[in-house]
Write a structure and sequence with these properties.
about 250 residues, alpha+beta, 9-stranded antiparallel beta sheet, two-stranded antiparallel sheet, 4 helices
Length: about 250
């Protein structure tokens, strides 16, 4: 009886498989050819992908052009944009960076004099101006709502260490180069807001990354989720030498 039942199940399985194959062949055979062909209808192609958009129905000049990328490199700037950038650099960006250096005295991984116009790399969107200071990515925000401020810093070595686990060859250094009081003072000088001690979370970086002897700093205002980075207005990482490895500031802080 069991042998007969097993034979029936095998037969049913074969029938189902053959039926599925027939349906698949029929479906592919009846699909329109242009579904498989590369020659898509004329349209706008974004970033050389195969996703084509239909031609714009609005008259020319009335619809905004779709950018090829949200990042515009320095080599792509027009003479007029270069002239404006040079003026903004002297009148707005250098003063903002000077104030930022004063807030983090001795804790920036490069000298203020290294911040020069020739280090400009690209603009992200309309408001984020990125400079490459050696191997450090440094971004200044210039927006009508958030003002002009330093918004981001990341060293290349720091990025590698933060994204790798401790080696385990030796005991990690769990001491930290900054205190809660240091952070509160720097944050107030930076953004004008004095955070409460219970809003500052500091953890040794060596506990979970290969950045030995550093500190992971999170500003978590009362009533916000400490596990949600999007609600944290200011985040910093300090290396063993006490200098910034990473700095991220909320655009509206």
């Amino acid at each position: 009886m069991k042998q007969i039942r097993g034979s029936v199940l095998v037969f049913v399985g074969v029938v189902v498989l053959l039926t599925a194959l027939v349906i698949l062949v029929h479906h592919k055979k009846n699909r329109p050819l242009d579904y498989f062909e590369d020659d898509q209808p004329a349209g706008q192609v974004i970033n050389n992908t195969n996703i084509a958009l239909p031609p714009a129905s609005a008259p020319q000049g009335t619809a905004p052009a779709i950018p090829h990328s949200i990042t515009k490199r320095s080599s792509e700037f027009t003479p007029g944009e270069r002239e404006k950038l040079a003026a903004d650099f002297e009148q707005k960006y250098k003063p903002a960076v000077h104030r930022w250096f004063e807030a983090f005295q001795g804790r920036v991984p490069f000298d203020e004099s290294d911040f020069t116009l020739d280090k400009f790399h690209s603009r992200l969107g309309d408001y984020m101006y990125t400079f490459m200071i050696g191997t450090t990515t440094f971004t200044v925000q210039d927006s009508p709502h958030g003002g002009v401020k330093v918004s981001y810093l990341m060293t290349r070595d720091g990025a590698v260490q933060l994204n790798s686990l401790p080696g385990g060859a030796s005991a990690p250094t769990l001491t930290m180069p900054v205190t809660r009081e240091d952070v509160i003072s720097m944050a107030k000088a930076d953004c004008g807001r004095e955070f409460k001690p219970n809003e500052v979370i500091i953890r040794p970086s060596a506990a979970g990354t290969s950045l030995d002897g550093g500190a992971l700093v999170h500003i978590v205002p009362e009533g916000t989720d400490p596990n949600n980075l999007a609600t944290q207005p200011l985040n910093m990482v300090f290396g063993k030498d006490g200098k910034l490895v990473n700095y991220t500031r909320d655009p509206f802080l």
